């Protein structure tokens, strides 16, 4: 579920399913003074596209995600909307759930390209997502 901060960016959920997310960050409202996407908009896109696949399979009454770190490698400016997608495999999900049950935490690293409207690779996101059990204290 989007939060007000993310909603203000106009981030669009193109596809959101079990272990998968494909999102679009619009240029409109997120462009800088020279007409290209703000770096901060790339960061919001990276955070959301990395975290949503993990959130999709969590029992949120028992578990929650946090970001451990985020890195956006900027390749070239985008004067258009930018999309990104990330998928966790069924075996990765199974392993993450087993770790959550066994030790109360699990971690995955999402690495993915971001593309402009013409399909050019404009940035690469690398996000470490930690899944924690409520009451986890280590």
| β-strand number | 6
Secondary-structure element sequence?
HEEHEEHEE
Radius of gyration over all CA atoms, rounded: 15 Å
Q: Between the first and last Cα atoms, what is the distance in angstroms?
A: 27 Å
Oligomer: single chain
**What class, by secondary structure content?**
alpha+beta
> Strand order across the biggest sheet?
1-2-4-5-6-3
Low-pLDDT residue intervals, each spanning 5 or more residues: none
Q: Report the helical percentage.
A: 25-40%
Q: What's the mean pLDDT score?
A: 93
- Biggest beta-sheet profile: 6 strands, antiparallel
Number of helices: 3
| Backbone shape | elongated
Strand content: 35-45%
What report would you give on this structure?
The structure is a single chain. With about 140 residues, the chain is α+β, with helices and mostly antiparallel strands. The protein contains 3 helices and 6 strands; from the N terminus they run H-E-E-H-E-E-H-E-E. The chain has a 6-stranded antiparallel beta sheet. Strand 1 and strand 2 form a beta hairpin.
Characterize this entry briefly.
The protein is an alpha+beta fold. 27% of the residues lie in helices and 40% in strands. It starts with a helix and ends in a 5-residue tail after the last strand.
